[in-house]
Amino acid sequence: MLALLVIVRFSVYVTTPADKLLFTPGPLTTSATVKQAMLRDLGSRDREFVEVVRSVRRRLLALANVRQDLGFETVILQGSGTYGIEAMISCAIPPDGKLLALVNGAYGARIAHIARVHGIAVHEERRREDTAFSDADVAALLAADPAITHVSVVHCETTAGLMNPIEAIARAVTAHGRRLLVDSMSAFGAVPVDLRTLGADFLVSSSNKCIEGVPGFVFVLCNRAALLACEGKSRTVALDLFAQWRGLEQDGQFRFTPPVHALLAFSRALDELDAEGGVAGRGLRYRENQQVLLAGMTALGFESYLPAAVQGPIIATFRYPRDARFVFEDFYRRLSDLGFVIYPGKLTAEPCFRVGNIGRIGAMDVSALLAAIAATARAMGFDPSARAS
Ligand SMILES: *Cc1c(COP(=O)(O)O)cnc(C)c1O
Asked: Is the CB of 180 under 6 A from ligand 1?
């Protein structure tokens, strides 16, 4: 009884009271004010909407510390994150190009898969899901294969929550005269990115991750020269980054039905990001969430999968307790019934589950989740500290 009393789902942020808290990698818990910003109809050619799109594109560049007059562009594309990744891969790499895909999780593997579907030559370089790539790895691979023209890297590999050191990797790629393509889907907005110094051609993120908007679009931050080089090169119509950009630049219009409501919500989400202190403030809250989570889970006996050196602030991965009374589906359902949604694992190597730190949640919410996890472990009768013998 006592245990149940402490499971008061309390959020310091104004969310929608009836909704469960999402400890997931996206879509995420969003603020009530972000959702309220969608409660209207606006024509896609309306001047007000065109102005929202223009300002969102400008503000996204500013988050990466660049501007149009410094030679950078933003292209917004309808769809989920993968649509933007496919647009980048299928526009940027020419028919005689070759991609070095750095793969230490499911999202890196997805990039390699997309390239193969488009008939692009790929060298898929794999590491374990708990092992980051280094600049030395990349330098050696590039020195060994002069046919490689492009390198893809996942900033935060959401499969386990690992951070790849994109700045060091970018230096190795630039030093070898190759081009870098970055999937920063789950990091951008909470982990600093400086496109002015990074030297990447393209960097992709989406509306429903660290900027805490709703799903509906993806954005590609582009080096303008690299974007202009994509003219006429796209292998698809809908995912043509250059054509999409030209439309947005010429008359402020999307070529096809725009995600009006998602953009209205996102514009509000950017205001709330600014109010929190921008990327630094958002990153601080996520790191606090992460510290409370890891300390609390470790105290309960759970084992974190990633070594601390590669653990990012976005999501944490925990090994299944080796106790027959731990059944993930039951654990998940009981937590969900208490108002907390966690996430299944995505590792190929080991059975794990994941807990996200991103979205409109704070340390109080993480503490409430920890109390619910403790009570659920007791109710199911498993020992979180049971390890493989
Ligand atoms: C979320 C995510 C994506 C995109 O996934 P979608 O389901 O298409 O939105 C891509 N890469 C990473 C690292 C992600 O976290």
From this structure: no
